[in-house]
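Purpose: get a first structural picture of the assembly so the mutagenesis plan has something to point at.
Setup: two entries, given in the order below. No constraints added.
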Amino acid sequence: MIEAVAPEPRIFLEVSHLQKWFGAHHVLRDVSLAVQRRQVICIVGPSGSGKSTLLRCINHLEPIQEGAIRLGGQLIGYTERRGRVIPKRDREVAADRRKIGMVFQRFNLFPHLTALGNVTVAPIRVARQPKLVAEETARTLLDRVGLGDSHWKYPYQLSGGQQQRVAIARALAMEPTVMLFDEATSALDPEMIGEVLDVMKKLALDGMTMLVVTHEMGFAREVADHMVMMDAGQIVEEAPAAAFFDHPESERTRAFLSKILR
Amino acid sequence: MLAVIFHWDTFFHYVWPPTALQNPLIRSGLWVTIYMAVLAQLIGVILGAVCALMLLSKHRALRWIAVVYVTYFRGTPVLVQLSLIYFGSAAIGIYQFPDLTVGGLMLPGIVQAGILGLGINEGAYMAEIIRAGIISTEAGQMEAAKALGMPFRTAMIWIIAPQAAKVIIPPLGNEFNNMLKSTTLVTVIGGIELFNAFEQVNSVLFEPFELFLAVSFYYLALTIAWGFVQSRIEAGLGERKGIERRPSTLRRLLGGTRVSRVSSR
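Result (structure tokens, whole complex):
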């Protein structure tokens, strides 16, 4: 009998020994994280623990001081030349970011563009797709997030939940290999949270690699493969979702969960 | 007792365009005033945009150059700047301002100097206006553009500029209104614009009250006409962008309504 050898799980996104300061404030302390393709990782923790900063470092919206971030083996935001790490130029950073989609807490839709315009602007101006092709894809994406009838509406004509779904479609239009969600439902009224979480769930089921900073524990328990607990700039616990919620190991996680799940 | 004598015939002859424009000096003067104002404003906007980006640059040297430019040209009289550019640069041999023909349009040296001088001066004011427009856009807009993989330039052109334009265009319109009037300053370097044309007529007729009153109405007509164009542009901008609803020019003039801002959230 031949024993099937499981292939070593390929690490797709790797954060290693990341250090980040805002002036004298040490925001990320030696953070390491490995994400595999199709994995959904939820990052939780009290505010100010560095969750959002970690996401922002991953697509280089924030420069890092030490450590490295690799996507598919490639350094993000920096190049290594003769053993030295040098910041990439604007255009190279932009090219790196194309592979990474990001959804913001405050949506940040472009107010001068319609829903369709928001979704097509990057494919047309960055990926140089013909307008008709980009619009075709955008319509499909807007249908997918349940906004098939709002193509021509401007952001101010949409509810918060609808705006956030447009923002998700906008990020997907660049065909990213990983999606970052930075508290995507925190600015929403309670009745709109569900519609956005549903879209995120569908995305996870479709096999998107996702890093999700969230306070929605129900969503995390249901969708996450892996949970990461952060506190004071450090990862204090990392575990499969079931283990994380049922038998949290660290005292800090237990305290956090008991407070938030009460 | 001193008798006040107002020559109505002179006044009517020169205030009424069909008769006044029979004078070739006035005809070409009016034309020069209009294209000088437009071209100078255009130069001002271009210089202002470049300068605004320099003011916002992370490179200290670029910021410094821009600050010196803005400070100098806002802090010294345009009249002096015009003289410096026209007489000064000719005298020390930088540029003699020869008459040029550009695309069938004859540009006399003085007009070139006028356009350049007014344009450079205007650039200093536009720099501040454009800078304010750019920084008025939310930080999240640039971040969202970057996160989509846009390089700085692409984000500037397609995301930031259209939003900044809403903030820039109203004061830009006021600047152009000023520019129409500032063209009269070119008279000091011997410019052949509208005011200068009337001065020349006056040197023959010597009826300054009637003539200068008449010419003032030409400027009034130009600025009022521009005012209408401006409010049309602003209204169109508000409608198309769908962000901000502005009250009409009349309602704004009469007051009582506040410019309301529809929240983007």
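Chain B has eleven helices and four strands.
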